[in-house]
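Exercise 7b. Backbone tokens:
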């Protein structure tokens, strides 16, 4: 199944991009876990759409299942007024990605596959926030793959990653649909950002990219196979 356009009719009505990207992330994780990733690694899809800021508070329990006795709230204490209050624009982001963990005790993020959404590209602040997230992964040594198939907003998000990292502007033209694999390297105090960019085109097969899990360890990320699997999961038989 070649690359389809879920951002315009007819698929935007029958299988809109949100539902397809969720299925695609699940298919990528499923295929990676089916023998593609080396032992000690596993993939999990992550979807967070328009989520508010939340803090989870757990109630402590004794080992025998009995609840710990809790006193009521202390109504005598009240926080003081804030010393500073400034206006901040928090950009809304669609977070749809696949995370690959190294299970060597405590799970450690080794790589992330980011499926770009229209909201990631609609404003400069949104593009900067998306790039900052990718740059943070790269600074921590994680491999990153950015898959941009958004046909309604042909805006470059990959060059923004280089800008956030204060890196030299790339010579590659990221202006259209692209899939890019990134690998950060550090040797003798010097760092490099290696990239494998591939232009994408509606109606054409998708590439296989290296998914970097460590300094010299990678796994093949077959975007075409996962795209076909997602189409099969959603019973998409053809582009129309």
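Sequence design result:
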């Amino acid at each position: 199944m070649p690359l389809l356009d879920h951002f315009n009719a007819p698929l935007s009505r029958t299988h809109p991009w949100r539902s397809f990207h969720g299925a695609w992330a699940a298919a990528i994780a499923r295929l990676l876990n089916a023998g593609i990733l080396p032992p000690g690694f596993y993939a999990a899809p992550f979807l967070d759409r328009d989520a508010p800021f939340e803090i989870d508070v757990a109630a402590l329990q004794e080992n025998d299942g009995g609840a710990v006795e809790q006193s009521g709230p202390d109504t005598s204490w009240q926080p003081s007024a804030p010393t500073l209050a400034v206006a901040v624009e928090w950009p809304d982001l669609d977070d749809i990605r696949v995370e690959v963990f190294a299970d060597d005790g405590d799970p450690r993020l080794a790589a992330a596959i980011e499926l770009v959404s229209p909201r990631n590209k609609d404003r400069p602040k949104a593009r900067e926030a998306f790039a900052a997230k990718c740059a943070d992964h790269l600074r921590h040594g994680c491999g990153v793959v950015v898959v941009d198939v958004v046909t309604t907003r042909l805006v470059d998000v990959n060059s923004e990653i280089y800008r956030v990292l204060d890196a030299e502007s790339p010579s590659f033209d990221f202006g259209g649909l692209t899939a890019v694999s990134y690998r950060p390297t550090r040797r003798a105090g010097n760092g490099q950002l290696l990239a494998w960019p591939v232009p994408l085109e509606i109606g054409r097969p998708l590439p296989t990219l290296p998914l970097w899990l460590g300094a010299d360890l990678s796994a093949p990320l077959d975007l075409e196979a996962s795209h076909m699997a997602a189409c099969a999961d959603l019973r998409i038989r053809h582009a129309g």
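Instructor comment: The CA atoms of residues 154 and 176 lie 6 Å apart. Strands lie at 41-49, 94-104, 106-115, 143-148, 178-187, 190-199, 208-214, 217-222.
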